[in-house]
Design goal:
The complex is a heterodimer. Chain A contains 13 helices and 2 strands, in the order H-E-E-H-H-H-H-H-H-H-H-H-H-H-H. Chain A is an all-alpha fold. In chain A, strands 1-2 form a two-stranded antiparallel ribbon. Chain A starts with 6 loop residues before the first helix and ends with a helix. Chain B has 14 helices and no strands. Helix content of chain B is 71%, strand content 0%. In chain B, helix 3 packs across helix 13, helix 4 packs antiparallel against helix 10 and helix 10 packs across helix 14. Chain B is globular, with a radius of gyration of 25 Å. Chain B is an all-alpha fold.
Chain lengths: 296, 287
């Protein structure tokens, strides 16, 4: 039975204050700040949509937006799908060493992204990194510059070597997390569904496609939505891999927001934040809608 | 999952694939440790050093240079970074654990004016990106005297929407009859929380605690914004600067520092991996 008393106010006062002062309030003010010109001290000047109009002509903003979208589109679906495939193998009764594999694959989720990024920076370093050397070692004339190189092929100018490195590392890093969550989802699937499919003579791939995949659809939805939200806001890994060698070929929205903040162009920084906020909202709603339609 | 076991060839191929992926997760960390034990020359055998570029530099350091660790400790105030990260993560876990649980208790088991408003406030905070809020959160922190110190890393996380929501869900399953019995025994609401709710909700409290600890330990964006001076820096901030070559130039020494910074968490994770997976994965696993 739920009760009336003063206790709930006592229990909630501090948490609500914290959430209001550090999250909800600052978000509302931040969205409003996008309409002002402000350096952090002195009066703010109202400029209406001026900041957003400047964004349209900003030669730094478009690469940031493009890179962010490329990063999300090329990293999220592969890691979710890889996680699914890995989980279906690891979950099989005949699989040996489940705990070991789960521990190894979860490691990059627990270790700081910054640390992971730094180690990769060393692995890919053009002067002494393991991978560039291995490539030269097996007989190629020279290795691509994974951290500062240009486009991979001339007709895809937006897909540079550093961008590909970031995407591959992101897939590598998050596939294990997806696998662990899929394992949890798979353990809830009713065994009799598989047996029924087998009685019907379904092939192994058929069972995977027509029984397993639809059964874990809610988890797929969860991983896609949270993956896209996280991807749109990507910061840590980009910082760890590119700070000090930053160029337009890897700058992302979030990094640009932070750089503008450092330059004390707070209104402009907040306007880019507004764009990111809108993107997050649209992506989330779009995906939830698609998922709901598929589920129906 | 299938009752028909696939052929031995398929099974072997599947194991090989999965183990290769698992090995790729460990390789970077092994490479980090092996680099940490090399001399500069072993790490970078270049033409400049009078050597031809050979295939892979030997992964195994052929002359173990433990001195890199001492050099790293001398160049970087590792202990300070450790202490800052540890204190911030432990305090956040403790303070947020108490507040999230009490707030979850209030939302799950009490009727009060403004309940819906509070619930939606809590829910909305889960969806608001920090990149929009950080400017004024930073200003608020500054007004409250929380810039460049441990409080700045703890207080803003002393409650979280996700934490409160998880606790509300967990506490909702505590039987009302137990709470009523406690009340008849004359327990106050706080005593009820401690003696009745806490034991039953403990698995969620523990999982949430691990989640909070890992999130705080690894957090980067907010510390980057609020921390300035070197004595308040946390491990990830220090690691990022190490990577850019701020403290030391030598890669082996940098990797030695990295090893000191990351290995303890890796070891703790290996020991408590089940609890970690539960804690970090709880966001999705409990639907």
């Amino acid at each position: 039975m739920r009760r009336r008393s003063a206790s709930p106010y006592l229990f909630l006062a501090f948490p609500v204050a914290i959430l209001t002062v550090f999250t909800v309030g600052p978000t509302l003010l931040g969205l409003a700040l996008g309409l002002f010109d402000w350096s952090g001290s002195g009066p703010a000047r109202f400029v209406g949509l001026g900041n957003y109009r400047s964004l349209v002509h900003d030669s730094r903003f478009w690469p940031a937006l493009r890179n962010t979208l490329v990063f999300v589109l090329l990293s999220v679906p592969p890691s979710v799908f890889a996680g699914f495939l890995l989980a279906t193998i690891v979950q099989a009764r005949w699989f040996v060493g489940r705990t070991l594999v789960r521990t190894a694959l979860f490691l990059p989720t627990v270790v700081s992204i910054i640390a992971v990024g730094v180690v990769w920076r060393w692995l890919l370093d053009s002067a002494g990194g393991l991978l560039p050397r291995a490539i030269v070692g097996v007989g190629f004339e020279r290795s691509p510059d994974f951290l500062q190189g240009g486009p991979i092929v001339s007709w895809l100018p937006w897909l540079s070597w550093p961008m590909v490195s970031l995407i591959v590392i992101q897939v590598w890093r998050t596939a294990g997390y997806c696998m662990v969550l899929y394992l949890a989802a798979l353990s809830g699937v009713n065994e009799s569904l598989y047996e029924a499919a087998e009685v019907d003579g379904a092939s192994r791939v058929g069972v995977l496609r027509n029984v397993t995949w639809p059964e874990v659809a809610p988890m797929t939805a969860f991983l896609m939505v949270t993956g896209v939200i996280g991807g749109l806001q990507v910061f840590d890994i980009v910082w760890a891999m590119t700070s000090a060698t930053e160029t337009d070929s890897t700058v992302t929205l979030n990094l640009y927001i932070f750089r503008e903040f450092q330059q004390s162009r707070l209104g402009y920084s907040a306007a880019i934040g507004g764009v990111l906020f809108a993107l997050t909202l649209v992506a989330t709603m779009l995906q939830l809608r698609v998922m709901r339609r598929d589920a129906a | 999952m299938s009752s028909r076991a696939p052929s031995i060839v398929t099974r072997l191929a599947a194991h090989t694939l999965v183990y290769a992926v698992a090995a790729s997760m460990l390789l970077p960390f092994l490479w980090m440790v092996s680099t940490a034990l090399k001399t500069d020359l072993q790490a970078l055998p270049r033409e400049a050093a009078g050597e031809s570029v050979t295939f892979l530099p030997p992964g195994w350091p052929w002359e173990w240079r433990w001195g890199n660790f001492a050099d790293a400790a001398r160049a970087v105030s590792l202990w300070d970074f450790y202490q800052n990260s540890l204190v911030a993560a432990a305090l956040t876990t403790l303070v947020a654990g108490v507040h999230n649980a009490l707030a979850g208790f209030a939302l799950a088991k009490f009727k009060f004016r403004g309940e819906r408003a509070v619930f939606w406030l809590v829910m909305s905070t889960m969806m608001l990106p920090v990149q929009v809020s950080f400017i004024f959160a930073y200003i608020a922190a500054g007004r409250l005297g929380m810039v460049d110190n441990i409080q700045a890393l703890v207080v803003p996380f002393a409650a979280s929407g996700f934490g409160i929501y998880s606790m509300k869900q967990a506490i909702a399953s505590v039987p009302d009859s137990l709470l009523e019995a406690g009340r008849l025994d004359g327990m106050s609401d706080l005593e009820l929380f401690w003696h009745v709710v806490r034991p039953i909700a403990w698995p969620t409290i523990a999982a949430l605690g691990i989640f909070t600890f890992v999130a705080s330990w690894n957090s980067f964006f907010w510390p980057l914004v609020v921390v300035d001076s070197v004595h308040s820096k946390t491990l990830p901030l220090a690691v990022a600067e190490l990577s850019a070559g701020r403290y030391v130039q030598s890669w082996p020494v940098r990797m030695a520092a990295m090893t000191i910074l990351t290995l303890p968490l890796i070891v703790v994770f290996m020991i408590f991996q089940r609890a970690f997976v539960r804690g970090v994965a709880m966001a999705a696993v409990k639907e």
